[in-house]
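Bug #77: duplicate submission created two jobs. Keeping one. Sequence:
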Amino acid sequence: MALYRTDAVVLGHRNLGEADKVLTLFSPDKGKIHVVARGVRRPRSPILAGTQLFCYSNFLILENKSLDSVSQCEIKESFFRIRQSLEAVAYGLYFAELLRASTPLEDKNKQLFDFFLKTMYLLQESENPEVLSRIYEIKLLALNGFTPELFRCVNCGKKNFDIIYFSPSMGGILCRDCIEKDKKAINITTDTLNVMRKMLTKTYEELEDIEIKEYTKQQLQEILELFIEYHIDKKLKTTQFIKDVQSFHS
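Kept job's structure:
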């Protein structure tokens, strides 16, 4: 049985037996993988620290016929500051769940890995994780092949709009003349469309000082949540956790 090394972020875990865990890792050269961390639930386990949720670690992994197993791991970044804020934890869990849900197993994507890792570093410092999450959603969808059409009507190709609709099922904006193609499409403002365009095309650094009106934030949350649910075909559990945390702090 062969050994291999890989850097990876811990996206999730579940208990196995009395002392083991099955980890979901995301790696630049392996993609999303499941591995067993044997004995990790014992207090003195040498791999306990590096296998915590959100940890970015270097793993030495033993190949097996079923699940590969962690032999060693060394922490590169623990993201401990995320754990110091309940709100940051909620968004970290959401970012990890969305990546797990939208990414197939063993699909190598270094660009996506680098993007996710950068997002986690930004979350650790962020004073506005809600806006960060909207940028993350739209860019993650684009990296996974679900880029929304935001510059012309997804049905007829028209570029100028007096009234704008967003269709989660058709994957973009619709003009007034094409609303019959999806009667569930949501009427959005020009401001919402412009913000989405910026989030899609600009870098995190260029969006650092972006200002978004409260109504636009609400509209972005609504349409992106529906867009995500349509394309990954499931409702994410962590979205409700974020709402609960926001309600607790309001």
